[in-house]
Design brief:
The complex is a heterodimer.
Chain A (H helix, E strand, L loop, with lengths): L3 E4 L2 E4 L4 E8 L5 E7 L6 E7 L2 E5 L6 E7 L2 E7 L7 E8 L8 E2 L3 E5 L1
Parallel strand pairs in A: 2-11
Antiparallel strand pairs in A: 1-3, 3-8, 4-5, 4-9, 5-6, 7-8, 9-10, 9-11
Chain B lengths: L3 E3 L4 E4 L4 E7 L6 E7 L5 E7 L4 E3 L2 E6 L4 E6 L8 E8 L7 E2 L3 E6 L1
Parallel strand pairs in B: 2-11
Antiparallel strand pairs in B: 1-3, 3-8, 4-5, 4-9, 6-7, 7-8, 9-10, 9-11
């Protein structure tokens, strides 16, 4: 596989559930990102990992917990989410800080019921 | 004032038309600028970086106007496949975080 792969594509979860989003990149990039995209809002950066070390947490609630076991894999663990957390969650990767562009995965469309 | 501002549109144009979008940014020291394209229910994809001298890629031309703090994207000879949302992205100086615009929606009609 090439590029950035995200699973699952769609997820419906209750407010008491625990689930995880997975992202894998096959581009040899050193940086990985989680973004949230909600309707009528710009992309919101959630977390940044550089060489598997977290370098940025953009004031994200603790019900979102990232994990980066290596430079190719990124997870977002979800628990006790709220309906307003329903959104498209996008994973991206880049070489360096991304001045040659970010490569995004196809996203996970999350619905919290 | 928003850090990055775009006219949301939608811009409805016929095939073959020339269309231009602007994007204004508030931080005068911003250094890096990009245009991304996002198709409906898909992920954003890099369309082009924007360089100080302006740059062209086929039918697409991007320009930077530092004095007025905006970047522009010109699309010539529009195709149906150009229908998408075009996202303006700016990296402010001394801040690693990219700032994303809301996007401008373009619909090219037959």
């Amino acid at each position: 596989e090439t590029g950035v792969t995200q699973t699952p594509r769609h997820l419906v979860m209750g407010m008491t559930n625990k689930k995880s989003l997975k992202c894998e990149q096959h581009l040899g990039h050193n940086a990985m990102y989680w973004y949230k995209q909600s309707a009528k809002k710009p992309l919101e950066l959630m977390f940044v990992y550089n060489f598997k070390e977290q370098t940025e947490n953009n004031s994200v609630p603790s019900r979102f917990s990232p994990e980066c076991p290596n430079s190719s894999h990124l997870f977002l663990h979800l628990h006790t989410l709220q309906p307003e957390d329903s959104a498209l969650y996008l994973c991206a990767s880049s070489s360096g800080r991304g001045d040659y562009g970010y490569t995004f995965g196809s996203g996970t469309r999350l619905t919290v019921v | 004032r928003k850090e990055v501002e775009q006219d949301p549109g939608p811009f409805n144009v016929p095939e073959g038309a020339t269309v231009a979008f602007n994007c204004t940014y508030s931080n005068s020291a911003s250094q890096s600028f990009f245009w991304y394209r996002q198709d409906c229910r898909k992920e954003p994809k890099l369309l082009m970086s924007v360089y100080s001298s302006g740059n062209e890629d086929g039918r697409f031309t991007a320009q930077l106007n530092r004095a007025s703090q905006y970047i522009s994207l010109l699309i010539r000879d529009s195709k149906l496949s150009d229908s998408a949302t075009y996202l303006c992205v700016v990296r402010p100086e001394n801040n690693r975080k990219l700032i994303w615009g809301l996007g401008t929606s373009l619909a090219v009609n037959p």
